[in-house]
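ZP: hey, is the zinc ion complex queued? I don't see it on the tracker
AM: it wasn't, my bad. submitting now with these inputs:
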Amino acid sequence: MGIMDKLSRLFTGAFKHTSAPQSSFDSNAPFDSDKYLAANQEYTDAFCRTFDLTSIEGIRSIDAAQLDEWKKNAPGVPSTPVQILSKQASSYHSSKQMDLAIECLRKVNELYDYDKFPYRQNDYLRLVRYLRDAKRFDEAREEEAKIQARFGHKDETLPKDSFYINYMEDLIRTANVLNTDLVQASTAPNCCELCGKYRGRIFSLTGRDKRFPKLPDDFHLTCGLGLYAFVYGASTPLYVKGDLLTESKKPFVDSRTPEEREAYAQRQQQKTIDATDRDDYAWLQEFLPDLAPKSFGGYRRMKNLDSNNYKTLKVRAAEMGHPIGGEQAET
Ligand SMILES: [Zn+2]
């Protein structure tokens, strides 16, 4: 939904404005898992009484931009709006109420945009998978193209237009409050080559502070690196090993250990396999619906077992010009 749509819907009062209850859970008391679960359930129930998750109209009328209070008061992650709707989608999927399941996920994707948590392309694509499960193939293709366009490419990364911008805005706000131009980049194991160059340093946000390098434009938050406002002489350099100035200014060379590189390469390889399997399963659902297993999990199992049914699928798919299992078409 575009910003103008959002605004006009706000003005026409199409959205329901409701305030969130306070949770009964005392997060300062020693952790009691029964109380925690009960508080989450109670909060989820309150959410479901306030918002109608049983009709398409009801789900649509939830205003993703107005749920800050619901997010803030939730006693735990399981009862945040995004998780409630996400779980509701799974439940509708299991009971074959696909229209409702899909509507929940549309709302979930909208909610992702307002969250501080980094959601990945794969999270957004769950909607596309549900559309295919519902045999709404054209819509699935359209939605998939939109999501991929937003992420810029097929690889798993973060949308520049929401999470990254929100994150940077927050960071700059905090830095301004602290009256600093410096940020600390955290470290992450098994990150990519780029993060391997940037992790564990102090950067200048604007380039004003010449003692430190300017925060690079291609810094990304996909691999688990974070940026934290840093006050020179006051903040603890949690992630910088050694002298701040020397460490931050050293040449930008990939600092990963061979083990970290290997772990990253393996993860990438697994991601490629996962993506191929997803693509193949989507194709089978549409073009060999009678032979395709009922679920993606089922497809993965038959593929890993290399069962006879899988071999049949392979032959049929190849005959139709779409070899599956990562094999190249003969040219
Ligand atoms: Zn990275």
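AM: back. Residues 3-155 form a domain with the Serine Threonine Protein Phosphatase 5, Tetratricopeptide repeat fold (CATH 1.25.40).
ZP: great, adding it to the tracker
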